[in-house]
Amino acid sequence: MSRTQDPHRPSFPFGNAFRKILPKGSSLPPKPAEALTRFEKKLGDRLWKLVPENKNDIVSLSWMRRAIQSLCETHTDIKDVMSELDFPVSDWDVKWVDVYLDNSVKLLDICIAFSSELSRLNQGHLLLQFVLHNLDASSSKQLMRASTSLDGWRQHISSKNPRVENCLSILYNLIQSLNLPKVKNSAKGKVLMRAMYGVKVQTVCICNMLAAAFCGSAKNLVDLHIDDRGNYLWANAFKELQIRVNTEIRDLFRTGRSSVLKELEAVDTSVKALEPMTRDGVKPEEGNLFQDRIADLGNGAEKLSRGLDLLTKEVDHFFQIVLSGRDALLSNLRVSSTNSEISENKAKGQTLLSF
């Protein structure tokens, strides 16, 4: 599916874009305003880059890897926004902290589930290697072994992963927490919550797409709806991405496919072609065709394994970013708590001992 026209990026006057997030009678200093504008524009550009230009990109392991890379960049950007806002954690509302910590745990669980599924899929590569080894031989016994391994691979790939199934309920809970928290009397706080809303929308959307692809079902694929009144600079890009990808995933599953992963489907096609050729343990008379099918399987297996490895590394990277952000918040909270305790004790004329 090619893009029919150049993406239309919204252009809003600054006052209109942020009027709804600021307290009445307040004005936003230039630095926080610029930080928010820069963040939203970068998020929009990042989402446009994920909009597939071709249907064959949906859903490939390479597209999944780019999607997780995009999440890594966005989660890194929000740290820069917090730094530019000069809005210390000690000024956060306790509800913001609770929501952030709760959501970060859920994201870590999702990363673990995705890594588990990628590892499970990669285990099938050993079966394919065994198949290819036996197909190199001409004995009936080894051809029968290859046939058995081909059947074993298909059973392995079609099995379900409970961890990924559990992702769906985790994502549902994250979706319920998407709404912007109420912020009173803090322009910087409203800006921070607005930026974090963009992070959460992109994160939930992409994780939902990947979970649906891994689960082999579109029934839990969710279409997120964002408030158009927010005038988010990334809104058009997000809507286009969600429509393109979700529509294609649903269309693919309607055809009866058990997987929408392009690389996995290519290997499965080769396996289906080789199964009748090896079932009787007799080498087919169509020698050239048989060798072509073996070559197809070898190439497909290599692409699948390489794609799974690269995606696994990106998921691990995202896990570390989420974990480091969570650790940094907890560390800042401890420092803030300690400083507050020191100030209180000094006021009482007490001395704290350091061990």
TrEMBL record:
Location of this chain's protein in the cell: Membrane
Keyword DNA-binding attributed: no
PANTHER family to which the protein is assigned, alphabetical: BPS1-LIKE PROTEIN (PTHR31509)
Organism: Dillenia turbinata
Main localization, broad class: membrane
InterPro entries, sorted: ROH1-like
Membrane topology: Single-pass membrane protein
One Pfam family linked to the record: ROH1-like
Keywords from the UniProt entry: Membrane, Transmembrane, Transmembrane helix
Record's GO cellular component terms: membrane
Signal peptide (from-to): none
UniProt keyword Transmembrane helix, yes or no: yes
Descriptive protein name: Protein ROH1-like
Similarity remark: Belongs to the ROH1 family.
